[in-house]
Specification:
Length: about 170
């Protein structure tokens, strides 16, 4: 069984999970070997250096998630294997888990406010939080409602004493 939570702690892990999710979606639609070309645009790392995607695909092969034939021109098509499909499904479930999103939003708001305090940012706003490295869970940004709930919970628990400006 694949456990994707171990990959969600880094940008590289999230990037790889986003790629496997995109490949899984394509295989469900098309049902055969998937061209990698359309996925070069899903991440800025891939856009800036095509070799990053090639390395991610090689890593996925080492994990048993995909198979492919490699030529001198690189990897042009992949086939998803069962563990890759399972990883994509687990990632989709983890991204949509409301409890995990709520817990993560509270933790991230608190960490972000602490960073603001350390860097002398005196009037943080929702927009600042959403644009920060803390503003998302597994690659999906928090909604205003999630942020409001997180702040409300932190105030209720007396971990913070003032709400952010909208």
């Amino acid at each position: 069984m694949v456990d994707v939570t171990s990959f969600t702690g880094t940008q590289i892990g999230i990037r790889r999970l986003e790629l496997i999710a995109a490949l899984n979606s394509a295989e469900v639609r098309y049902g055969y070997e998937i061209s990698t070309e359309p996925y070069e645009e899903i991440n800025s790392d891939y856009r800036s250096d095509w070799r990053v995607m090639q390395e991610d695909l090689r890593w996925m092969r080492s994990e048993g998630w995909v198979s492919f034939e490699e030529s001198a021109g690189g990897i042009t098509g992949v086939r998803l294997l069962s563990p890759g499909q399972e990883a994509a499904q687990q990632y989709a479930e983890a991204k949509a888990d409301p409890l995990a999103r709520a817990q993560t939003s509270r933790d991230r708001v608190l960490k972000w406010l602490h960073d603001c305090d350390l860097t002398d940012i005196h009037s943080p706003t929702y927009k600042d939080f959403k644009a920060s490295k803390y503003g998302s869970h597994l690659g999906t940004g928090f909604s205003d409602r999630e942020i409001t709930k997180a702040i409300g919970w932190l105030v209720e628990k007396e971990l913070i004493n003032a709400a952010l400006k909208s």
